[in-house]
Specification:
Shape of chain A: globular
Structural class of chain A: alpha+beta
Mean pLDDT of chain A: 96
Strand content of chain A: 15-25%
CATH topology of the largest domain in chain A: Naphthalene 1,2-dioxygenase Alpha Subunit, Chain A, domain 1
Helix content of chain A: 10-25%
Distance between the termini of chain B: 13 Å
Low-confidence stretches of chain A: none
Shape of chain B: globular
CATH superfamily of chain B: Tubulin/FtsZ, GTPase domain
CATH class of the largest domain in chain A: Alpha Beta
Oligomer: heterodimer
CATH superfamily of the largest domain in chain A: Naphthalene 1,2-dioxygenase Alpha Subunit, Chain A, domain 1
CATH architecture of chain B: 3-Layer(aba) Sandwich
Order of helices and strands of chain A: HHEEEEEEEEEEEEHHEEEEEEHHHHEH
Strand content of chain B: 15-25%
Radius of gyration of chain B: 13 Å
Number of strands of chain A: 19
Number of domains of chain A: 2
Largest sheet of chain A: 8 strands, antiparallel
Chain lengths: ~425, ~120
């Protein structure tokens, strides 16, 4: 449980809030690269951390992220013209470059220098790993771009999607941290998912639904290890990585399947983008795998046409199928791993009241992630230390699934497996 | 909730954290090796938190305490403190003792994280 004040501190992300200021210290996954495909393409509305922005790619291919509203009369630049190295407001023609400078003002006398005094709020955008990243923090504190494994792989070795999730980022992320629910919520169908199949791990998950947890603070976040019985001599370990402030890496099911990870990015206090990434460090994803991901297999979803909102959503009770639930095809009656997660997380309400929860031993990862985020937000508010997770060294980790002798701790036995060694196989059972 | 310090190294941790923790938490420090009284430590507790402090020592009594507490229906957690405790505890006998005793084992950087954990479990002042 958290106090009411702590819950607000964790979930309020607007400008000037402690958590909002903390999260602005990091590069933020903002758009899929495909959303700004080329020079002078359509501008895209962006909402991040309560800020309403507009992204565009100018005639020279440069990326810009500006205040959505024209400095003149506050018309939305979404309706503007992206042409000749700038975004021109459709109302009176004021035009802005990627730095937010007003470079043309046709509604005022030509000899006027008034335009030189006008500047829209502008943030840097960078492209890496199929994602366009934004930095909304103080310019002198801008960190290097993230170097999570999936961000550095060739395009054919990764698939990135995003979906709208209609609850607080913290609530969604806590689902990514909590690996004990896999034995329940995903119980009947995860072994059949084409992206998780063929792993001995499924048998261990089904046989031992009460894992023991070990949670260890890492330089960038947490190692969250769940231990299940194999036999009298060995344990099956699933080690999740949580990296500040919003990344999770999922323990794999067998090395022939892609690895998976998420980023949980606040749009505002009550909605977030759930980014989902499938990747393989040593091979290209097959056409069948990518087609399945586009169709909603694994950690991805099928969308409502023309949007990034899942087709199965709160308005249609996530297309729950009670017969499938009774037939034990799915535990919840909801199809798809990601939608099962979204359904339970959104069912708590937009911002869950954490003063009412009663946590147990299987929630230690969630408790410690909250603690680290709250501690870092307070430190930023008080002018304190550089937050964890900014150093790219802290990104060089892997999730893992391993079988170890009972007498060997996961920190020792899975030490190499948790370390990112580029272009090498990963440890998976 | 009951917090059990295992051995003398844990006493200092208990004395540091206790003043900032909820009044409702019971605190006990026991001999890390002696079995006397181990069976009673879990009685009436919903959650039993075992800590050896920095994890440098041994806590051979931990599995016995944990086993009794589990039979009595308590959830059992272990907490090891120290910035380098992750690696250190991974190689120490203390971790082995605790791992067999608990439902969850946490290795945290500092007292604040330990206190945060207790508060999250319902031990807020």
């Amino acid at each position: 449980m958290l106090s009411r004040e702590e819950n607000a501190l964790l979930t309020e992300v607007g400008p000037g809030t402690p958590m909002g200021e903390l999260l602005r210290r990091y590069w933020i996954p903002t758009l899929l690269a495909e959303e700004l495909p080329g020079p002078d393409c359509d501008p895209v509305r962006v909402r991040l951390l309560h800020e309403r922005l507009i992204a565009f790619r100018d005639s020279r291919g440069r990326l810009g992220l500006l205040d959505e509203f024209c400095a003149h009369r506050a018309a939305s630049l979404f309706f503007g013209r992206n042409e000749e190295c700038g975004l021109r407001c459709a109302y009176h023609g004021w035009k802005y470059d990627v730095e937010g400078r007003c470079v043309d003002m046709p509604s005022e006398p030509e000899e006027s220098t008034f335009k030189d005094k006008i500047r829209l709020r502008a943030y840097p955008l960078e492209e890496r790993g199929g994602v366009i990243w934004a930095y909304l923090g103080p310019p002198p504190l801008r960190p290097p771009l993230p170097e999570l494994e999936w961000t550095l792989l060739p395009e054919r070795q990764r698939f990135v999607s995003k979906r709208l999730q209609e609850c607080s980022y913290a609530q969604a992320m806590e689902g990514g941290i909590d690996s004990s629910h896999v034995s329940t919520l995903h119980r009947f169908d995860i072994a059949n998912d084409p992206h998780f199949k063929g792993s001995r791990g499924h048998a261990y998950l089904k046989a031992d639904t009460r894992p023991k947890f070990e949670v260890v603070e890492s330089p960038g976040g947490l190692f969250i290890a769940a231990r299940r019985n194999v036999d009298a001599d060995a344990y099956y370990w699933r080690i999740t990585q949580w990296i500040m402030p919003w990344y999770t890496l999922i323990p794999p099911f067998a090395a022939h399947n892609p690895l998976g990870g998420h980023a949980w990015v606040p749009i505002d206090d009550e909605t977030c983008w759930a980014w989902s990434i499938s990747f393989h460090p040593t091979r290209e994803l097959s056409d069948d795998e990518v087609a399945g991901m586009r169709a909603g297999d694994g950690i991805h979803v099928e969308y409502e046409p023309g949007t990034y909102r899942p087709r199965a959503n709160a308005d249609n009770d996530y297309l729950i199928d009670r017969d499938a639930q009774r037939r034990r095809e799915t535990f919840s009656g909801i199809r798809g791993i990601a939608i099962q997660d979204a359904a339970v997380q959104e069912s708590m309400g937009r911002v869950v009241d954490r003063t009412k929860e009663r946590l147990g031993t299987s929630d230690a990862g969630i408790i410690m992630a909250r603690h680290r985020l709250l501690q870092a937000a307070r430190a930023v508010r008080d002018g304190g230390t550089r937050p964890a997770g900014l150093d790219v060294g802290s990104h060089r980790v892997r999730a893992a699934s391993v079988i170890l002798p009972r007498g060997v701790s996961f920190q020792v036995g899975a030490c190499e497996a948790m370390e990112l060694r580029p272009e090498t196989e990963f440890a998976a059972v | 909730m009951r917090v059990v310090g295992l051995g003398e190294p844990a006493r200092a941790v208990v004395e540091r954290i206790r003043p900032a923790a909820a009044a409702g938490i019971e605190w006990v420090v026991v001999d890390g090796a002696a079995a006397e009284g181990a069976a009673a430590l879990g009685e009436g507790a919903d959650i039993l938190v075992l800590t050896p402090g920095d994890g440098a020592g041994q806590a051979p009594v931990a599995p016995l305490i944990g086993a009794h507490a589990s039979r009595q229906g308590a959830l059992v957690a272990g907490v090891v403190i120290g910035a380098d405790a992750g690696v250190a505890a991974g190689r120490s006998g203390c971790l082995e003792d605790l791992r067999d005793a608990v439902d969850v084992l946490l290795v945290v950087a500092d007292d604040g994280a330990f206190l945060g954990y207790l508060q999250a479990l319902g031990g807020a002042p």
